[in-house]
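Bench log. Compound arrived from synthesis this morning; before running ITC I wanted a structural hypothesis for how iron/sulfur cluster sits in the protein. Inputs:
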Amino acid sequence: MTLTEKILARAAGKTGVQAGDNIWVNADILMTHDVCGPGTIGVFKREFGKTAKVWDCNKVVIIPDHYIFTADSKSNRNVDILREFVKEQELPYFYDVIDDPEGKWVFDPAKGMLKKQYGSHYAGVCHTALPQKGHTRPGEVLFGTDSHTCMAGAFNQFATGIGNTDAGFVMGTGKLLIKVPETMHFRLEGKLQPGVMAKDVILHAIGEIGFDGATYRAMQFDGPGATALSMDDRMTIANMAIEAGGKNGIFEFDAQTQAYVDYRCKLNGTKTSYQPVERDRDEKFVFETVIELSKLEPTVACHPDPGQRKKAKELGHVKLDRAYIGSCTGGKTSDFLEFARVLKGRRVTIDTFGVPATPEIVHDLQTARWGEKTVWEVLVDAGVQMTENAGCAACLGGPVDTFGRMNTPLKCISATNRNFPGRMGHKESQVFLASPGTVAASALTGHITDPREFLS
Ligand code: SF4
């Protein structure tokens, strides 16, 4: 069996499964957020009754993150609905925007977009917050009401996005009927060259198979090249499995996975026991390829979909209005460090927005020092508009006052993960997906630029 099949077999209480089998699996974690949480709660109450209790209060994790820093009252209200449900169900894992459990969430635009407006429990973008808060464990099954839930496959778990109806059912029963996906095998060999990042790996892979090339399939990444990648890098790659239509992305378990997960689970007092899955000799793949990491170059997915692959060096003619770094995929500490490394001592020439994925990342950047200055100061000095309000922000467009949202038909280079028309706001805007390094280099020149031009 493949890694995915082994996890699903275990979660179904079976000794073996194969692609195409329909099986009932037990969920280890159900995650929802402010966009889909209210709908999921509605389905749960309608189907199980107004006084029903969730199947296991320690397995439901609720993370408001999407439409948070906006004066839109309906969006603010969604967070209040989550809070009311958490209180009623006595759920321990709710990462509220405010500290007062009796309060109401109201964003104050008069305070501006840059200074933080959240309390001590707030965790930021769900997919980045889940591992940071100790909710991702090898060998487990994670369902989330968000397509990029597949990011947690970096931790050797089966993680996939589901709709509100399925999530309402999981909330009541802890189970879901799943068709076992076929597995595509991506063996990574070699080492990334300077200026080339994990984002380039996944943009390359999606370019090979197209934005629907992995539809309802597992994407398994392994080999010596995968072992050499950091956990942040693996998260970037697993996150974008869905951009090829994948059901999930998954990596092998190793010492790095173990160190990360053990540290985070202990730090947060979450469950520390887990059982990883290892590769079998008799894995059956529907597709196999080898990606030689040392041959990859800075890569861009052009408008209008993540499969429109080109090399950054071929796109110098594409003039840009805006650059954006942020999201679960591209707003991690390591992403900002690479971004800052290119920008240090220089000035951006186009509007450039920076949105860390979580408050912990804000803290990392405001405390990491490069000589006299923090990394945060390096970025601000370079002209980047950095907000402390960690969250999804303009990655998903959002209400019209969302930080970094494109309200006119602009061209933007972005470290985010999705670029279908209208994704970051205006339906005629164009988004070019790239690594944080390529976004930084392009922000400096005002056109798409290979970051190796700025590396000494
Ligand atoms: S940052 Fe973007 S991709 Fe990630 S969860 Fe938020 S909206 Fe989705």
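What the model suggests: The chain is about 30% helix and 15% strand. The two ends are 46 Å apart (CA to CA).
ITC booked for Thursday regardless.
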